[in-house]
Design a protein that fits this description.
Layout (H helix, E strand, L loop, with lengths): L44 H6 L1 H10 L6 H11 L3 H15 L1 E2 L8 H7 L1 E2 L1 H14 L4 E6 L17 E8 L2 E5 L1 H4 L17 H4 L3
Parallel strand pairs: 1-2
Antiparallel strand pairs: 3-4, 4-5
Helix pairs in contact: 2-4, 3-6, 4-6, 5-6
């Protein structure tokens, strides 16, 4: 089963009459020309997640790497394509980097060395690994559904950032920060790897 993490939206009544018409249901569709859903047979997401050997390799052979370049070399030597390399990179970051609220220096090398960061640090580290692996990757600043947000409020400064990678001619979304799960739980959240946009939009 696919589980979707959602945040509660504050629906407090506004003192002013809202200037929008509430919509009960919105149908979300995916442009398969630009990115592939998990149900598409060309999307290898399920195979990547179910392969225990990939996880065992990272946990065993990449546990004590001393630099980003060493990590990338180990990932590159073990894997045969960019899909596998992307998953191994995501898995290593989500398993080894801890989210620390208020962490100031989020440069990729600092996050790697200290094993700490906020969303920007997770994103920078993932982008740097992709750069060394010659995988096209971009940072995506945006918004998450916060408890304090009210429908009708203006979106201003982006509150979160994640990545998009181009694999096999298609773009895929991933969020290594949320993939790392709760700082206290230390549980990998696979949902945030190559997540379909029509699913990721809910959070």
């Amino acid at each position: 089963e696919r589980s979707i993490q959602t945040s509660a939206i504050n629906l407090r009544e506004s003192p002013q009459k809202p200037s929008f018409i509430p919509i009960k249901e919105v149908e979300l569709s995916l442009d398969q020309r630009r990115t592939l859903s998990e149900d598409n047979p060309k999307n290898p997401r399920k195979d990547l997640l179910s392969n225990k050997q990939y996880r065992e390799y990272i946990d065993g052979q990449c546990n004590n790497v001393q630099s980003i370049s060493e990590l990338v070399k180990k990932i590159e030597s073990y894997s045969s394509n960019d899909f596998i390399r992307t998953w191994l990179t995501f898995y290593w970051i989500a398993k080894n980097i801890k989210y620390v609220n208020g962490h100031v220096d989020n440069a990729a090398d600092v996050v790697f060395r200290t094993k700490r960061g906020v969303c920007r640090g997770f994103t920078y580290l993932f982008s740097e690994c992709c750069r060394l692996l010659n995988i096209e990757c971009v940072d995506v600043p945006g918004y998450v559904k916060e408890n304090w947000f009210r429908i009708g409020d203006a979106l201003q400064q982006a509150t979160h950032v994640w990545n998009a990678v181009k694999l096999g001619g298609h773009w895929y979304l991933l969020d290594a920060t949320w993939g790392a799960g709760s700082p206290n739980a230390n549980k990998l959240e696979e949902f945030y790897f190559l997540t379909s946009p029509d699913q990721l939009i809910y959070t």
